[in-house]
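$ fold --in a.seq
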Amino acid sequence: MNNGFEEDVIQEELQDTESERAKGQMLKGSAWMTVGSILSRILGALYIIPWRLILGASLFPLANSLYTQGYNIYSFALIVAVAGIPSAISKQVAHYNALNEYGVGVQIYKKGLSLAILMGIISALILWVAAPILTNGDKNVIPVIHSLAWAVLVIPTMSLTRGFFQGYNNMAPSAISQFVEQLARVIYMLLSAFLVLKVMHGSWVTAVSQSTFAACIGAIFGFLVLVWFYWKNRNYYQGLIKNSNNKLSVPTNQLYCEIISQATPFIILGAGVTIFSLIDQFTFFHIMRFATNFSEEVLQINYAIFAGNANKLTMIVVSLASSIGITVVPLLSEAFTKKNKKALKDSFSNALVLFEFVMIPASLGMVAIAGPLNRTFYGTANMDFSSNVLAFSSIESIPIGLFVVVAAIMQGVSQNKKAVKLFAYGTLAKFVTQYPLVYLFGAFGTLMSTMIGFFLATWLMIRALKHEFGIEKNMLQYESVQIIFYSIVMYFVALVSVYGLNWFFSLFTTPFSSIISLIVTGLASIFGAIVYAYFMLKTGLAEQVLGKRVGRLKAKFNIK
């Protein structure tokens, strides 16, 4: 009897240690992916400033709309081409690594590689041939789609290799290659736009086509970084294979079946945001033509503002959630494989709290600085409308980001089919509410229907997870209330800072220039971040969420 009790205690201690290790890995992985993703997204937004100057005030709105329409179609094609294989590979590699069968994980990567190459070729051909059908009435979209088809050839292989590294909970290669990919893309698109328009005096459509072809250039450089990482650490991976159990032999057909069965749900859920964007793209113009007498140029500008301008900036915030989601999948898969219920339950709760800790202040902060932030990137054209759309989109990023994290959790614990089914309910809600909301509220209606769709899908997923595995409800409620409260305090500090700085600069210059708006954005963001960080350290919440090392900052700044 006593021995049984001691065994239970030892088992609980082992599970506690496992949970702490998983939390540490999640934080470390999230940190790498967050840095890589944030830097990539910032680069992906910053290019707008010089790109806008190269195109000029008259061409930029049209070019931006064309770019956005092409990219939405490309994003969906790319998700199909990648076919969820990288995330599936990450999950399956982590599964077999947890069984000390590293050789099987390498086999899965090799089989997945052949699938990725095949899917890339098929998807690129379909995208090229189907380009005239996907124009939505604008023939200028055709060369843009053709230029993006080349990227679809390369990116599946690169994404698959990232999934292999992530299966080892090694997020650094993915993060660094992501940044290099974006850097190469931005350099090429700005250089090509300048040469086409300023040196060769070519067409703005050609300039946009070259700007989108930059995705292929970026993918090549990103993949080369991953090859370098593997070559540098090849002895380490070979050593793991040699020291594996090597008792498990999985037939080739079974490997393919595992990859495809795991990948299919990742396609649908990974394409969630893109699917909603495509619904907007193929319904917004038709509804607005029926509801208003706006000219086609005005409709293009409106579309570019909510689908392009605001989306580029809010995706910086959503990328924070993506980083958490990418990190949590292999950790959950490992805990699920080991049947460690406590680690599973803690990982759910830790992922949700980490999401709130990062996303809520980031989203509310962007609402506060929406005016100067929008002017920094897009100038003063339609600035009131654009700023309001950006503010609303920033709120919208919370349910989108939560969906990304919760969908990743569902997949990490093999609730794939259920996740797809619940997402379908959210998509149906988007369809049902799209027409009346766009009819009544225009561009804001698309954002409202998106929020409704993602809220419904996410709420249903969280309810299913709670029923199946349980969630630390008390911890979530306590920490959530604090995070929301101090995020609102931070919001008001940033908002007051924006108004105060605008008033100060208005005494001797216009506060609406791009340079002054950049200064206001930077200072207001810093003031808000300092306030939020202070309260998180003072209450001890930062230490609870991010780990004990954060406590050093508390001592360093003498916060009691």
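$ fold --in b.seq
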Amino acid sequence: MNNQNLNNAFPIVAAALGNKFGVKVSVGGDDAYTTGDRIHLPALDTEDTNIQDIAWGYLAHEAAHVRFTDFGEFRNAATNPLRKNIVNILEDIRIEKSMQDPYPGTKRTTEKVVEYLVKTGGFGFVTKDQDPHPAKVLSQFMLFRLRHDILGQKALASFADSAEALLEESFPVGAVTRLFGLLSDVPHLNETRDCVRLADQILRMIQEEQEKAEEQAKQQTQQQPSQQSPSNSGGQSDPSDDAIDDQSDDLSSDTDDSQQDQQSQPDNANGQSDTSDPADDNSNQQSGQGATSSHSGADDPSQDAEQLAQILSSLLSASQDDLPDDLFEAVQELLGNQPRNSYDSDIHLPLAMEPARNPSIGNAILNRALSESGKIRASLQGLIQSSRYERPINKRSGNRIDGRKLVRLSQGDSRVFERRTHKQAPNTALHLLVDASGSMNRCISLNSSITLADLAMDSAVALALALEGISGVNPAITRFPDEDTDNVNPLLKHGQKVRPNASVFSAITNGGTPLHTAIWYAAASVMATKEDRKVIMVLTDGEPDDSDAAKSVIRRCQATGIELVGVGICIDTRHLFDHSICINNVSDLRSELFRISKDLLLAA
């Protein structure tokens, strides 16, 4: 599909993917967002096919949220920025992993988003030189390491390794070790609540490590005076010995100067926070080994613990500004900054509303349709059967000789072998779109009480009954609009049978004729079917609310490979559809369908 066709088809494909994932999708306006039960995509119009991958990746990710996230639990977890951030990272991993089971293709779809952001520098990776806030260090480590290790997003390998190294340089060894232990539970998270519980365990661990560092700093501070002050057995200077007193004064002066020099030095040579384990540093210095390499400039051991305690305290009190943007919030912003299709900016795909049920009305329509459906089916099956065989072709080789062509041999023509080829059987998804607008309430003639809506519904049910009995044809029926809105009523979905759904069939009329949105819905439905050919048949009085909008959507469908047929109910619809028929009663349907069915049902 070329770029122009992609732009034309974008809303249709988006809705089709939404149907596949079992979520509602709308397209239009400038923004990408999720309401909890619906995913909204902007009306993209761009030559950059990478943006298509971003849009589908965003759709797959948000569909996973709609299907698997408990939004109540999720919202309640946002008690502070850090807790919200950790829960969000864990939940994103969980729902994407859950989505890969029923829809394996979403793994590659979301990988493409990650690969694009890596390629374009969209992740905003922070390094030690940038003196990052501890919250950013933790967040980017969890994001990259978990996405790489659990979701298998290999493009993040170097990011994950670098983020892990920065974490180890920034946080106490004990905290890092315990964090890895806690994160080993991530593959086994089953619910949003599990993510909240694990996030709280991580926060408690950080708080415990902070308290441990504070206690170590306090102990080290208390030990220093006794280690650095001179003493004797009595704890008192001897005032009677002037020589000893003079020597004591000199020693005390030297010691004070030395301590002042030591305290005026920075914690380490680089002016950076110490990152080794406080307990290990204390042990090393007491044994005369000195500080570790990452603390090469720290002469006062209490400074290590104090700095680590401060780092963890800053982490726990992080504000929203201290944390990086959520991955798919960045994707939202990226999609929102793309060129927009002006036509789509005010158009939204309709919702599928559950139709009312009335068994008595539905069964009456079904009974009327039964007599006509048998005739239609017989007519169409005869056409299909006869077209399965092409006229025989004579070849120079083969297994069957055509006796009527033997005379050719005397003329030096060896094409006497007969060969017959089979045409492909029907492989068509046909969506019947029934206009139930207020204008369809007119009677078909002055002498009849039958309305246009009655004729349209009877014809649709009769045709669906006929087609469901033909192998390779997958019919569906949708009525529009739903009351006075742009929404639709699916009466028969692809793959369902007519008789069990009879109670939903009725010729109620209401509202306008939002044909453009109804065709979008039907297009999304047929796009989600497995059949090779996709056909929409619109039964209407040919008076849409917006003819230009309807024609534009029809062109989009054609660009996507969807064929459209107009069935004018007592009116000609050729001003809207290239292929159209006109019927004045249900019996007309059989003869008119026969005329177009070879192109409608059989592959070229």
